[in-house]
Amino acid sequence: MKKIYGSWLGNYPIFKQLYYMHDKIIKLIYKNDIIRKIKYKNICFNIKFNLNDGFVSKELFMKKIYEEEITSIFYDEVREEDAVIDIGANIWYFSLLSSKIVWNLGKVYAFEPSIDNFKKLEKNIQINSISNTDLLNFWLWNNNEQLEINVDPTNIWHNSLVKDLKGWKKESIEVKTFDSLLDSWYIKNFEKIKLIKIDVEWFEFEVLLGMKRFLKSYRWIIILEFSPIFYWKKTNDFIDFIYNNKFISHKINSNWSTTEIDLYQENIKSQVNILLKRV
């Protein structure tokens, strides 16, 4: 059944209905935190989560993998000696995946501002006996300041600076520019950074604006969610910024391939995962 959910058959209505019925049943059975072993090719790690934490937990439980098309890019592009930046590590899956790929020769820097998620990330690092990952309890932004994040109590993977719904709690977080880390001890050996993943709920542009100095000097791969309908009037400015910094944009397809795209043509869509590479 789990193999069906994770395949193209899982997109059919009947299997979607079974998927959600299965979800309700397993949540009744598994009320406490559980640990799942994740295996992708020769990479293996454990991840601890609660099925009531949101949709990502359900994906991990049923499929034992999350966003396989992006997982494959991490695996294909990152090498043992590389460094990886995970901005918005709340779904700590990619931090754990990266730590196992780069192993002892590389480094992972995981940024997570929410204190609850940060503690869970710490726990998962301990469970896997990982020593090559630095956990940073702040967010990256286009300025150094304090902001207020809205925390969804029913879905820890979906905290937002914008959404403020009834029942959500507010949490003060620290934000910094990536460029400001140049003169600090937080990150070393910038030239070894190979891949940056950005998942910050519609504020990818702000994160990149805080990286302007580095974007001019290094040839990184960047993976982010491109969400034009949520950028309001900033969409074209965001696209201009990407192309002015000599990036080529690729759509990450569900069949694990990538296709070069024109973001100006994609800006009518709600959301698409993209990969940016320097020319």
Provide structural commentary.
By secondary structure, the chain is α/β, with parallel strands linked by helices. The chain is about 30% helix and about 25% strand. The protein has ten helices and 13 strands. The protein has helices spanning about 1-5, 15-30, 55-65, 70-75, 95-100, 115-125, 205-210, 210-215, 235-245, 265, and strands at about 35-40, 45-50, 85, 105-110, 135, 140, 145-150, 170-175, 195-200, 220-225, 245-250, 260, 270-279. An eight-stranded mixed sheet has the order 5-4-3-9-10-13-11-12. The radius of gyration is 18 Å and the shape is globular. The protein starts with a helix and ends with a strand. The mean pLDDT is about 85.
SSE blueprint and pairings:
Elements: H1 2-5, H2 13-29, E1 34-40, E2 43-49, H3 55-63, H4 68-77, E3 83-87, H5 93-102, E4 107-111, H6 115-127, E5 133-136, E6 139-140, E7 145-151, E8 169-176, E9 193-198, H7 204-209, H8 212-215, E10 221-226, H9 235-244, E11 247-252, E12 258-260, H10 263-266, E13 272-278
Parallel strand pairs: 3-4, 3-9, 4-5, 6-8, 9-10
Antiparallel strand pairs: 1-2, 7-8, 10-13, 11-12, 11-13
| Cα radius of gyration in angstroms | 18 Å
Average pLDDT taken over every residue: 87
Q: In this structure, how is the largest beta sheet organized?
A: 8 strands, mixed
List the helices and strands in order.
HHEEHHEHEHEEEEEHHEHEEHE
Give the spatial strand order of the biggest sheet: 5-4-3-9-10-13-11-12
Shape: globular
Q: How much helical structure, as a percent, in the residues?
A: 25-40%
What is the number of beta strands?
13
Q: Helix count, per DSSP? A: 10
β content, as a range?
25-35%
Span of the ends, CA to CA: 43 Å
Which structural class matches the secondary elements?
A: alpha/beta
Which regions contain 5 or more consecutive residues with pLDDT less than 50? none
